[in-house]
Amino acid sequence: MTIPYGRQSISQGDIDAVVSVMTTDWLTMGPVVTAFEDAIATLSGTPDSTVVSSGTAALHCAYAALNVSNGDEVITSPLTFVATAATAMALGVKVHFADVAADTGNIDPGSVAALITPRTKVIAGVDYAGHPVDADELASLAHSTGAYFLEDAAHSIASTYKNRPVGSLADITAFSFFPTKNMTTAEGGAVVSPDAALVERARRFRSHGLVRNKEEQRYPDEGPWHQEVHEIGLNYRLPDVLSALGLNQVKRIAEFKARRTSIFERYKEELSDVAGLILPTKRDYVDPMWHLYPVRIPEGRRREVFDFMRNAGVLVQVNYLPAYWHPVFEDLGYKRGMCPVAEAYYEQEISLPMYADLSHDQQSIVIDVLRKALA
User: Fold this and answer.
1) Distance between CA atoms of 348 and 112, rounded to whole angstroms?
2) In whole angstroms, what is the distance from residue 308 CA to residue 306 CA?
3) 276, pLDDT greater than 90
4) Which residues form a coiled coil (predicted)?
5) DSSP secondary structure letter of residue 131
6) In which band, very low, low, confident or very high, does the pLDDT at 362 lie, cut at 50, 70 and 90?
7) Domains (ranges, CATH) in the chain?
């Protein structure tokens, strides 16, 4: 038996929801998309949302909605999947990497402050493992310099910060619904914002930039079929088939959160006495929807422990290689050593299995194997 580090939870209700769409005339661009967008907006405490084809697409649409372009600068975390930076760079911006806090792995506002320039357009925080970033501090830094605060919440849908839902904290927020995330649409994502106009810009970008509203068109009398493109966009639409899965997953989100919290607390209780192990931190003012359970193995033993656990069938993962260590960044002149705290975090980190359907017995195996690996 193997135990993955993450996987989807699919119920019969999820399956029935998808099948029901298959019998309608709307496989895409239909009413289930709208219903799913409404559900995500409600969950996020925002007036609107737009759903898209992936978490990467959500980030791309979010940056586009903020009108970032050549000459602008974005500050983000290196402790993230490469898409957080790559989607900004695809729009022509210069990315700067700020270091992270040693306890949470989240971007450090003090490190961010040292990197702000007159060209800074966006500060992009990443909710590492599901723990929300220091949103108030990052928003204050951004707004004091005329920049935007973007939250990469790929890990943290249904988390709260100071009793406010993730999605309502930043100028714009991107979610991911990949199978290992806290809820899934197979592939998919969403963009939310307290500013409905930003969501509409993201929605337009995800649909080729098409303008269908006659009041906004330059040539509205062309005919009833007419649509225009005023700014270039891409096709990042999420179909009704996958939106149906997402809509039913939202109904299960409280169940998912409770189960992930229970798994987190059991790991914390049963691993707290293990020598040579650093457990994840939770700040008092957050209520995370845990996506990862990141432990750290000091004294250079991470690879040894990783291999031991994988050989025992516990398919632990490492999250993440510092983004600027990828050769594509190296070729652009980014150097190792820029963010020493993030690099130290990466060199020790292993993600233990964390998903809603992880059974009590499976978690017992994970704990036992980790203890043996560190013995």
Assistant:
1) 23
2) 6
3) no
4) none
5) P
6) very high
7) 3-251 (3.40.640.10), 253-374 (3.90.1150.10)
Question: Could you give the C-alpha distances from 232 to 63, 67, 179, 216, 263, in angstroms and in order?
Answer: 14, 12, 30, 16, 45
Give dist(CA 116, CA 100) in Å, integer: 16
Report angle CA 174, 188, 121 to the nearest 5 degrees.
25
CA nearest neighbour of 171 among 138, 205, 210, 204: 138
Cα 165 to Cα 167: distance, rounded to the nearest angstrom: 6
Strands (E), 119-200: 120-126, 148-152, 160-161, 164-165, 172-176, 189-193
Q: How far is CA 293 from CA 268, 278, 281, 357, 366, in A?
A: 10, 11, 10, 15, 12
Q: Is pLDDT above 90 for 1? A: no
> What pLDDT, on the 0 to 100 scale, is given for residue 88?
98
Spatial distance between the Cα atoms of 231 and 65, rounded to a whole number of angstroms: 11
Report the SS3 class of residue 156: coil
Backbone torsions φ then ψ of 184, nearest 5 degrees: -140, 155
Q: Is 237 helix (H, G, I), strand (E, B) or coil?
A: strand
Q: Examine the residue annotation and report whether 181 is marked as an active-site residue of this protein.
A: yes
The overall pTM is greater than 0.90: yes
Retrieve residue 227's tokens. 């649509």
